[in-house]
Amino acid sequence: MERYLLFMDNEYYPLGGWDDFQGGFATIEEAKNYKASEPKDNGHIIKVTVSKGAIEFNPVEAFFNGGPWEPVETDD
After folding, report:
1. Are strands 21-25 and 42-51 parallel, antiparallel or unpaired?
2. How many domains does one find in the chain?
3. Is 52 a member of any domain?
4. How far apart are CA 47 and CA 75, in angstroms?
5. What is the four-CA torsion angle of 43, 20, 40, 28, rounded to 10 degrees?
6. N or C: which end of the chain has fewer CB within 10 A?
7. Exposure string (b/e) for 44-74, b if CB count within 10 Å is 16 or more?
8. What does the alpha-carbon distance between residue 37 and residue 34 come to, in Å, rounded to a whole number?
9. Structural domain includes residue 76
10. Tens digit of pLDDT for each residue in 4-58?
11. What is the pTM of this model?
């Protein structure tokens, strides 16, 4: 199972951690579309994959200073 978690904050007053959690979405497109309804300065989407007792968290896209979504590069 895959799920996408969206975290967003404002530059001047980030709450941090789960306080920036906006919701869980079935698709990445749903998470991205939520940005339009709740404008914030920064945000990131984390893909959560659950399989046979293992849970993986991988950042997939982010935006900064109100800009467009961009892929997140990891050191994998």
Report:
1. unpaired
2. 1
3. yes
4. 16
5. 40
6. C
7. bbbbeeeeeeeeeeeeebbbeeeeebeeeee
8. 5
9. no
10. 999 888 876 666 778 888 899 999 899 888 887 877 888 888 899 888 888 888 8
11. 0.77
